[in-house]
Input
Amino acid sequence: MRISELSRRSGAPVSTLKYFLREGLLREGERLSGNQTSYDDSHVQRVRLVRALLDTGGLSIAAAKRVLATLDDENSSLAHTFEAAQHALGVGRDGSSRAAASEAARERIARVAARNSWHTSPENPGFEISARVLDDLAAIGYEPSDAYLAAYAAAADTIAHADLGALRDRESADLIAELMIVGTVLGDALIAGLRRLAQESATEELFPVAEPRADARPSGARQPQRRDPK
Amino acid sequence: MRISELSRRSGAPVSTLKYFLREGLLREGERLSGNQTSYDDSHVQRVRLVRALLDTGGLSIAAAKRVLATLDDENSSLAHTFEAAQHALGVGRDGSSRAAASEAARERIARVAARNSWHTSPENPGFEISARVLDDLAAIGYEPSDAYLAAYAAAADTIAHADLGALRDRESADLIAELMIVGTVLGDALIAGLRRLAQESATEELFPVAEPRADARPSGARQPQRRDPK
DNA sequence: ACGCACTGATAGTAACACTATCGATAGTAC
DNA sequence: GTACTATCGATAGTGTTACTATCAGTGCGT
Output
């Protein structure tokens, strides 16, 4: 197929496809002559993958490029592909480099990991991401309890095993690698969505709407001293 | 304190603080005279909250503004604040409006919710977010199993109860509302980080590095993935 | 032989999140 | 009282990102 059909089948404008080509997010098609290039179903697939990474996954073009590069790297074991993809994903959704997390926060995350018998490399970006959240919470004045972190860790463990379990019964190594990466990126969005649902439910459970408490003031503009009295 | 000290204490440049003021992310201080305005600790706190929302939570200025507006809305019940915050967060991290999820995907999410006895409003953005992931996975050629979704839902349930549990023993309604919102936004990042750690561990567990498959090239020095060639 | 789709290259655009500059003013130091 | 410095609101400018548009040249199909 030519680029116009690739556009029609993938839903992306031709100009965007050319942009993806330029940026290396999409392999070049087979050149038939000076002004004819042929694309196939794998290109359609790839465009959809890129759109999912960008839109649902919230990745930047640069991050998507790194992720796809590890995917296209043939001579890697699964574990290595995964590790590379994790690094390619980086610390944020984009490639932004903010201040690093504190050592204390990183150590607390390490303790959580140890308690779950996770064995991980110290360069796993998960340390940085999680530790930064702890630092942010501390800056806001909130110190999460061990039980809170343990619950999050248990949930992470559940998810990770579900992800890997979904992979186990696949045959092609290529497909496994792709699913692994897609699962990492889209799984973040999936858990975020489900969490919104679970939270609404849990909120009503614990704080019913017909709350007789008179916490809501009629008007008064008092300055609340928000500080955690730890 | 004056704006320069607010800057020093919060770590944000004065020009950025003025920007936050303009955008309504930060309440105006108390005007003492034509060119003197006094800020207090609550402003320092707020700046840190905004930075956490923007940097770690990945929110856009517009989304952060909506979220903070619901937080500042005094006459709301907790449940209502939460609901408003969920909507303020919107479907993506930013306010981008992409194509809606399919009805089939939305129904599948509804079934998952029902199986967990979540009772939620149909407008909860969690439906849209999760359903879109399902659509994306389908477009990639992957149909997640019920077991897979069930595991994610169980994890979401665990997290939601941990979040709410952390709130229950707080006294001030203002603080609870703030934590609820921060928890929603930063919690996404926290679970993402922990998930990365759990996945690395689970990957090694299920796909050991010394894999006898012919796909893995056991030759020692792997080319590190292309770092940023900029 | 003519027209249209295609090619790569380059230029332009819109949104976003700041960041810098400005003239006017006012509090503080001497 | 004068000099100095910080602040004020307003406005303009900057760098990045993710496209989107235009263009000159090429060649397949009828």
Notes: Chain A touches chain B through 119 residues (CB under 8 Å).
